[in-house]
Amino acid sequence: MTDVDGDHIARGIIAEINRRAEQAETPERRVRLLIEGVEVALLSTVPGAVQEQAGRLLAAAEDYERGTGGAKQRGWRQEALPMAVHAARFLSSRAYTEHFRSSRGERSTALWRFAVLQMLDAYRSVLRCDGAVAAGAMWETEPPATGHAGVDASFAALAEYLADRDGWAAPEWSNDPARVAEPPWYVTDLPRQRERADVESPEPFRRRGVFITADGLRRV
């Protein structure tokens, strides 16, 4: 089979994946399918396919982030953590780094935004609508490893931080000693911001090797 034939098949597979993604019943299912589309594109030689599929995936993540893709759906609290894990796995993958030539700082910013802050947004929505007990229940199931130690540590730190702040019991998995970033993860590469993070990072994050500024848990 020639490269031309292979690209023709790849285009067909990608088109079908995108069609199914548009018809997906949940935001999580949509993102799962779009990640598959990126993976197919990576295996093909179709010009521009990787960038196009990644654009679709990040747009879907942004829709979810703004709440247009799932905030009002009943599955919101069940989908939030899996969505964050999917985003982190993609953004920390070797394929993403190689194809998009993103700097370490750019990738850290994207990981923080689409994984950690996305989960925080979901928590805030449930907290506002259903109260602390329901919001805390979002953290009962331990998330699978994402492939990025900083994000894995951040999920544990965020669970403890929110539990202490809002008065619910932190899940046992948040105390897993494996959920520590080694070497430490600074969400920014800017020297002045790193200096601030050394001083301002909340204790649950600092103890797990994650360093953020005081406004790191806020949306711009």
Write structural notes for this entry.
It is a single chain. This protein is mostly helical. The chain folds into two domains: 1-73; 97-220, no CATH class. Helix content is 65%, strand content 2%. It has ten helices and two strands. It has helices at 3-22, 27-43, 49-66, 76-91, 94-100, 104-130, 132-137, 149-166, 191-200, 203-206, and strands at residues 185-186, 210-211. Helix 2 (27-43) packs antiparallel against helix 3, helix 4 (76-91) runs antiparallel to helix 6 and helix 6 (104-130) runs parallel beside helix 8 (149-166).
Q: Pairing-aware structural class of the strands and helices? A: mainly alpha
In spatial order, strands of the major sheet run: 1-2
Specify the biggest β-sheet. Answer: 2 strands, parallel
Count up the domains.
2
Helix content bin: 55-70%
Secondary-structure element pattern, one letter each? HHHHHHHHEHHE
* Number of E strands: 2
Termini Cα gap: 50 Å
- Count of helix runs: 10
Share in β-strands:
under 5%
Map the helices and strands.
Blueprint: H1 3-22, H2 27-43, H3 49-66, H4 76-91, H5 94-100, H6 104-130, H7 132-137, H8 149-166, E1 185-186, H9 191-200, H10 203-206, E2 210-211
Parallel strand pairs: 1-2
Helix pairs in contact: 1-2, 2-3, 2-4, 3-6, 4-6, 6-8
